[in-house]
Amino acid sequence: MIDIKKYDVLLMDLWGVVYDGHHLYPGSLETLKKLKDLNKEVILFSNVPRRKSTVENLLNSFKVDKSLYKDIVASGEIVNEYLSEKKKYGTKYFYIGSPEAEEVILNIGGYIKANHPKDADFSIITGIIDYFDEAMELAKQAVKYNLPMICTNPDKSSITKNGEVTHCPGVIAEKYEELGGEVIYFGKPHKQIYEYALKDIIPTKKILAIGDSMENDIKGATNMNIDSALVCSGIHRHDLQINVGEIPTKENLSKLYKKYSLKPTYVLSILSNIEKS
What top-level branch of life does the organism fall under (predicted)? Predict the structure, then answer.
């Protein structure tokens, strides 16, 4: 059981925790309102390969008002800021991903899109949910030219509104490394996104990270010595053999912990159950 009163700041994942990418999970909006009433600083903390403004617009469409959270930290926004400040990997990029997610680099002056990897300095991979096979082929082309790859989302999979598991950029980035390519990751579980999210937070404040991924949310929090809460209704729903909101068995949780050699501080069947802690 979570003693929510002892935490000042909540690093809260979005996809798999607050929403499924298309709809809010039951009770999510009410939970955010109650956390605001408790004066909790909620930082929405996501590996989504999109700009902060895009995520904000999506939340607005769900009636999640900006007053309910302190900030949105999206891996896509961090990539945009990084590429705006530095041109460490050159100026010509080979793009892999959805047309919409190219927004992470499109507005930055000085970059040129290359139509073939032989003409590029680096590759960048973003959202691939509807482009997995094409993205994998493009990545195999890029690695032949020794292009460093910027991965805007280390997630290897996500869960759809229908409960189906689909591929994310991290799985292609992993293959890229297996083929000998260099990958620069932005997002959980890597240190830089935590430092970015917490840069304005007073060090004495107590932090709780809430997420649905053992590999990214729980691992990242553990590496940063931050308490964590695993939400079971997200990506591990099938491993845990539950539907949204159901409580997994201790046996299935133990198997999950063993699989990743990790254990969260707390477990929630769904985000709204944090109110009952």
Answer: Bacteria
